[in-house]
Every structure is written in C-alpha cells, then in structure tokens.
Amino acid sequence: MAEPNKNTRRKASSPIDQTYGHLQPQALDIEKVVLGALMIDKDAFSIVSEALVPETFYEPRHQKIFAAIRNLNVDENPVDILTVTNELEKEGTLESVGGPTYIVDLASHVGSAANIQYHAKILHQKYMARQLISFASKIETSAFDPMVDTDELMQEAEGALFEISRKNMRQDYTQIDPVVRQAVDIIQKASSNSTGLTGLPSGFTKLDDMTSGWQKSDLVIIAGRPAMGKTSFALSIAKNIAVDYREPVAFFSLEMNNVQLVDRLISNVCEIEGKKIMNGQLSRDEWDRFDKRLSKLTGVPLYIDDTPGMSIFELRTKARRLVREKGVKLIMIDYLQLMNASGARFGNRQEEVSTISRSLKGLAKELDIPVIALSQLNRTVENREGLEGKRPQLSDLRESGAIEQDADMVLFVHRPEYYHLYQDEKGNDLHGKAQIIIAKHRKGATGDVLLSFQGQYTRFANPEDTMLSPLADNMGGEIIGSRLGSNEDPLGGDMNVPF
After folding, report:
1. Distance between CA atoms of residues 340 and 357, nearest Å
2. pLDDT level of residue 102 (50, 70, 90 thresholds)
3. Which of 47, 176, 274, 369 lies 20 to 30 A from 105 at CA?
4. In angstroms, rounded to a whole number, what is the distance separating the alpha carbons of residues 486 and 494?
5. Mean per-residue pLDDT, 113-140
6. Gap between the Cα atoms of 162 and 264, Å rounded
7. How far apart are CA 88 and CA 138, in angstroms?
8. DSSP states of 427-451
9. The whole model's pTM is what?
10. DSSP 498
11. CA atoms within 13 Å, Cβ hemisphere of 258
C-alpha cells in the first residue's frame, strides 16, 4: 500500500484555533527581579510606588510579597529579607508564598535596582493587558446572553472601560521653568488686550470684569432652582461666544432636544417671543426681523448634542473629537444631574454625582478648555423667608457637596422678582433683573453681577446694552428695556415663564 503523501496529510488535519488557549500576559522573571530589587534598595519603592499595586503581579505569591513590602514602606519601616519575612509571618502568609527560602532566593539573584523603573513599566503594561482581556471577556459573554439588554450592556461596558482608563492614568511632574514661561505669556497677552481678559469672554461686561473670562481647564457650575433661567443664561453665554465672537462651542443638552434649543436661540437672536416661535404666529414686522437676523446663525460654530441620559464616558469621547476636529473652545452641559456614570455601581446617587463632577473637572484639565455644567439646587431655598433667605447658598447644591469641591467657580442664577421681591438691600430695582451670584471663585473674587432678564426672549443681557427691542424699531430708537421685568412685558408675554 502506498504511503500517503505528506502534503495530503497536512491539508487533512484540522487548523489550529489561535483564538483561545493563550497565556495571560505575564512576566514572572521580571516580577522576581522587581521584588528582589525592592528588598535590596531602600529607595527603590519610591520610584515605582505610583506604577505598581499588588494586582500588577500575576503570580499570587508575588502579590502577597509586594503587599508586605508596601505595608513596611507605608509604616516607614526598613525593607529587607528579614523584615519582609517577619511581615509575611505576622500576616500568616509566609508559608503560602514559599517560606523564608523563597524570600532569600528572590533577593539573592538581583545585583541592583538600577533598571527597576523600566521593569515596573513592563509589569504595568502586562497588568493593563490582563484588565482589558478580562473586560472584553465579560462583555463578550454578556453579549451572547439573549436575556441581557444591549443598552444596559453598553452602559456597563462604557463604565468598566472608563474605570480602567481612570485607574491607570498617570500625570508626571513638570519642572517649573516651562510653567513660568506659560504664565508670563498669558500675562503678556492679557496686558496687550484692552479688556484685560485672559479667558473666553462671556459677553457680560461686569461678569467678565470679575472673572477675566472663562479660564482654561476650569470647571464652572451654574446652578439655580427651576424657573430661575439657568438654561437661558447658559444659552445666552453660548450665543455670545459662538455668534458674536465666533469661537467654537459645544452644547450638550440632556434635557431638551436640539430643535427646542435652537428655537430658544432664534428667540434670543431675533427678539421674538418663544411662544410665537413655537406656534409660528408672527406678525409682519416679526417675520421681517426673523428674515434679517436669522442669517446671524448661519455658519455659527455652535455644535449641539441632544443625546438623553448621556454617560460621562460618552461625553469624554465626543468632547475629545469636537476639540480635535472642530477646535471647540468651551463645553456646556445641561445639566449635570441628568448624566450617569457609565453604568458603574454606586451605593447611592451622591456617590455617582461625585464621580461625574470629578470626571468633568478631569475633562476640563485634559482638554485644557473651560467646562460649564448646569446643576439643580435642592428645595431648602423654597422654605426660607425674606430676600436673603431666598438667596441660594453653596450648601443648596443638589445631591453632592463634591460639586462644590471640584468646581473652580460656582455661579447661582437668582431672580428675586420670581419670589415677588422687587428691591435689594441697596435699594436697587430688581424688576426684570437677575442676580448672577459668584459664590465660589478659586482664582478671584466673589460677588454679585446684575443682568437684565428678558424672559420672553429667553435672554440675559447687560443692563447697559443698547440693543433695540422689537418695539423700538418703530419708536425712533427709544429703548423700553426699563419696563421689562414686570409680570406683564410690553408685548403681553409672561415674564415668569420657567426657562
């Protein structure tokens, strides 16, 4: 019988599946070298302490040994063969790691700790690879389960990946010289600017005087009770920056859809009542004004995203792309409490809001642009009496004190006339006025800024602005802004419409 052809046998055999059966990423020899180096050099731990945790080591015995070494360093005790052995014995894990002999063997095969930083980097990369494999495996298993809701799985996947990224981010130190040069450059640019602004202008003169504009890497919280106009205030800022100054702005609207938001913007720019924009019942003069002023919105670098229930991970992904592709200089979120923390599990809502707040501050630093997030206030302000009682406080921030802690600036939008309070303690008339209260300012002064509130146009404006009202077109340029703010405006609109 003829011997089968070798090539035939090779083709007949089953192909080897390369998908499974891989060893987990690991470097056991390097793990031994690192542990040995930590026991012979007292300064070695400080070099790698930020990069390594017990789980970085693949071998369970090595995890326990590193934990013992870390405990000794935290307690500022000497680290050597004897102290590590004693620490493991005290913890009852000495025999499970191989006894004193294994500890001696680790240290005896290392001559110095000269390359420990390089070795630690290798172990860290192996550890991250194992985390990603575990993450992918769990998602794959869940994706095959027909009982799993894919939307929930997406949220869970975003949260898990975001957590892996957050835990493994490292920020290296910077020598002061380049930072000094950067600070001097900012000062010089500000000195050559007649306005003295170092950040993006808000378009509100007195507010910019106090803040010097919206600063890079700052997290700004704009808070207020419902009907105070915080969304209108944020939209007015976005309009000023994008329409008037032509600086790119990203507006993430979690509460309203993009058409509703643009309707408000049209009302703001065209000075047409919001309800008329909705029902289309415009007079001839209003249609003329609509046609003339709508061109201001053409080509405006304002990018709106109305994804409901957006996760912080999704926001980060979209924000990075907008900054990279569109050169966005400011991000707005309306509003913080409608976001979620990427499907991660929390003991309560306060913990989740704290994570969101901390992540927004991290995003502002990473992208080096201001991030403005709107926030709700709790109901305690409604139960307080008098002018000062209705004035919001930092303690009124809803659901989390971490918002106050993470924010570089906290502004409250407050309209005393909503509570039928028409005069402040200085005797100023508060009809048609809103107080922008700077309650926290990490880089400057706190205080109040008084703005005009034109509720029928969903707009805030400088009290001294000379922009003509709709009726002024037929009144020889007469400004009627002084009448705005009473419960009935000159056009018959309700000035207390909750925006």
Report:
1. 11
2. very high
3. 47
4. 9
5. 89
6. 34
7. 34
8. --B-TTEEEEEEEEETTS--EEEEE
9. 0.63
10. -
11. 9
* Better pLDDT: 399 or 274: 274
In the predicted model, what is the mean pLDDT of the chain?
Answer: 78
Q: What b/e string do you get for 387-418 counting C-beta neighbours within 10 Å, with b at 16 or more?
A: eeebbbeeebbbbbebbbebbbbbbbbbbbbb
Round the CA-based radius of gyration of the chain to a whole number and report it.
31
pLDDT at 66: 93
DSSP string, 291-324: HHHGGGGTT--EEEE--TT-BHHHHHHHHHHHHH
Q: Which residue has the higher pLDDT, 241 or 430?
A: 241
- Predicted confidence (pLDDT) at residue 35 exceeds the cutoff of 50: yes
Sheet strand arrangement including 249-253: 302-305, 249-253, 330-334, 371-376, 219-224, 409-414, 433-441, 447-454, 459-461
Exposure of 200 in the CB half-sphere (CA atoms within 13 A): 28
**How is 251-298 classified by DSSP, letter by letter?**
EEESSS-HHHHHHHHHHHHHT--HHHHHH----HHHHHHHHHHGGGGT
Tokens standing for 443?
């880089």
In this structure, what is the dihedral angle of CA atoms 444, 447, 450, 455, given to the nearest 10 degrees? 90
Bigger pLDDT: 182 or 407?
407
Q: Which two tokens stand for residue 148?
A: 């799993």
Q: Give the tens place of pLDDT for each residue, 168-225.
A: 665 555 666 676 777 777 667 766 666 667 788 888 888 988 888 898 889 999 988 8
Compute the residue count for the chain.
Answer: 499
Q: For residue 357, give both structure tokens.
A: 């707040």
For 279-297, write each residue's pLDDT tens digit.
777 778 878 888 888 888 8
Task: Report the C-alpha gap between 473 and 292 in whole angstroms.
Answer: 13
Three-class secondary structure of residue 51 per DSSP? coil
pLDDT tens track for 133-173: 988 888 888 899 888 888 778 777 877 777 777 676 655 55
Nearest to 62 by CA among 22, 24, 105, 21: 105
Q: Angle at which helices 60-74 and 99-108 pack, to 10 degrees?
A: 80
Q: How far apart are CA 208 and CA 230, in angstroms?
A: 18
> How far is 166 from 169, CA to CA, in rounded Å?
5
Q: Per-residue pLDDT tens for 312-322?
A: 777 887 888 88
User: What are the percentages of helix, strand and coil residues in the chain, rounded to 5?
Assistant: 50, 15, 35
CA dihedral of 372, 377, 382, 385, whole degrees rounded to 10: -70
